[in-house]
Amino acid sequence: MSITPHDERFMAAAIRLSRWHLGRTATNPSVGCLIVRDGVIVGRAVTALGGRPHAETQALAEAGALARGATAYVTLEPCSHHGKTPPCSEALIAYGVARVVISVADPDPRVSGRGIAMLREAGIEVDTGVLAAEGRHSLAAYLTRQTKNRPYVTLKLAVSADGMIGRAGEGQVAITGPEARAQVQALRAETDAILVGIGTAIADDPLLTVRTPGLESQSPIRIVLDPSLALPLTSKLVATAREVPVIVVASEEVWPLSADAEGLPPSALPGYRGRATGLDPSFGPPAGGEIGKRRDPNSPVSDGDGFALRRDVGQGANPDPISPLVGEMPGRAEGGASPADMDSRRAALEAAGVEVLYCNPYHPEVLLPALATRGISSLLVEGGAKTARLFLEAGLVDRIQLYQAPGVIGERGIESPLLTTDIPSGFVHTGTLMFGEDRLDEYERGL
User: Could you tell me the pTM of the whole model?
Assistant: First the structure.
């Protein structure tokens, strides 16, 4: 059967439905499913909170006997493997649906094409690729983790009319108005984790939670790039770590002497990738050609802030770390705080409920897969010009949300690492929205 406007209309509704539980279905994708009979929706569902039950089984249960001979519209290929729940393909067969319309095929090797084959072998008509671009957009986090072994990364920046993102020495500065800030809260609510640098964490003392009434429970995991474990114990992040998880990403230079061997750094210890970064030892770097050839280490370039710049910004960026500011990492190698002091900091943070992850904060191509193994499919990079530049220059940003406000910061302004005039190659402008007086421009890479 050829695809009809009715198919697109019902699939569009299923995609809208799938967005209801974004960021709330654990490692499972948030999938939408409609059961339609004679042009009437008789069952509908989205993947349940926590990831189970799946959308198909819930929608079928709602439709009941009316599912026989009906058409099922599903945003992602129905699963075909036995996991903690039976395959959704089997449920569709058992209920007697006549046709299944799918937006996106599942790249999970346990499913990929098998769900479609199972349905067709049972005599069910299957059509795929309906509103595929829209479907991929709604499933971007899941698809990125499946195909690239890392979370889908969104960079959010709010920029003043004079190109600044803040004012030095003043902590948080409100650049956008209340409408734009409310939209950012909604973005946080559908994201698994949010990340800032230690400079932002200290200067702003942010909470990084969702403050929209009724959505507080959807606050993302909070991550701080903190090479020398400098996050103050009196910070709001530490104070609330038992309510909303906090991960600090520490340099292996501050790896505790008490761990495993006589003061050896993690990279020298057996199974380091599995234990120190959360990666399985066999877990490789991001796939899909994201990491290209290494830059000649004898020809560094600096941006004037102590960060080594990459010449090949974008998908082919190299994996060299961006060097930290001088004095930012007071570990053993630089003669700063003693190993005992580092152990004391780590113990105090962990006692407060903070997780310490030993994984070079300036190697996002290693950090992101480590986060993926923790079930993090989407990451919002929200704080700090240097942190934003780190991910941009690594070529590991998938979406840019650039808010532009009419106000001026003026003296002591912190320059934005990105403006609409210098968006990296590979990004496509996907839309402009207005929130009060603030303009949001969104840019995305292809999945």
Answer: 0.81
**Catalytic residue at 350?**
no
Span between the terminal Cα atoms of the chain, in Å: 28
The rounded distance, in Å, linking the Cα atoms of 169 and 167 is 6
Q: Specify the amino acid at residue 75.
A: T
Q: Please, is 234 exposed, middle or buried when counting C-beta atoms within 10 Å of its C-beta (0-12, 13-18, 19+)?
A: exposed
| pLDDT tens for each residue of 82-115 | 666 689 999 999 999 999 999 999 998 888 889 9
Beta bridge mates, 380: 154, 194
Tell me the angle at which helices 88-95 and 114-121 cross, rounded to the nearest 10 degrees: 20
β-bridge partners, 302: 308
Q: Where are the alpha helices (DSSP H) in 337-398?
A: 339-351, 364-372, 385-393
As a whole number of angstroms, the distance between CA 226 and CA 360 comes to 9
Residue with tokens 């902590």: 171
Q: Is a pLDDT exceeding 60 seen at residue 287?
A: no
341-361 tens-digit pLDDT: 888 999 999 999 999 999 889
The confidence band for 428, taking pLDDT boundaries of 50, 70 and 90, is: very high
Q: Is 379 helix (H, G, I), strand (E, B) or coil?
A: strand
Angle at which helix 55-63 crosses helix 88-95, to 10 degrees, equals: 20
Local structure of 135: helix, strand or coil = helix
Residue 331 above 90 pLDDT? no
Q: Give the DSSP H or E segment for 162.
A: none
Q: Contact, 122 vs 96, CB < 8 A? A: no
What three-state secondary structure class fits 7?
helix
Q: Which ranges of 205-332 does DSSP label H, i.e. alpha helix?
A: 236-239, 272-275
Rg of the Cα trace of the chain? 24
Cα–Cα distance between 439 and 431 in angstroms, integer?
11
CA pair distance 201, 207, nearest whole angstrom: 9
- 179 phi/psi in degrees, rounded to 5: -65, -45
* Other beta carbons within 10 Å of 50: 11
Query: Which residue in the list 8, 56, 62, 253 is annotated as catalytic?
Result: 56
User: What three-state secondary structure class fits 141?
Assistant: helix
pLDDT band at 256 (very low <50, low <70, confident <90, very high): low
8 A C-beta contact, residue 396 and residue 387: no
Distance from the Cα of residue 317 to its chain's centroid = 19
CB 140 within 8 A of CB 18: no
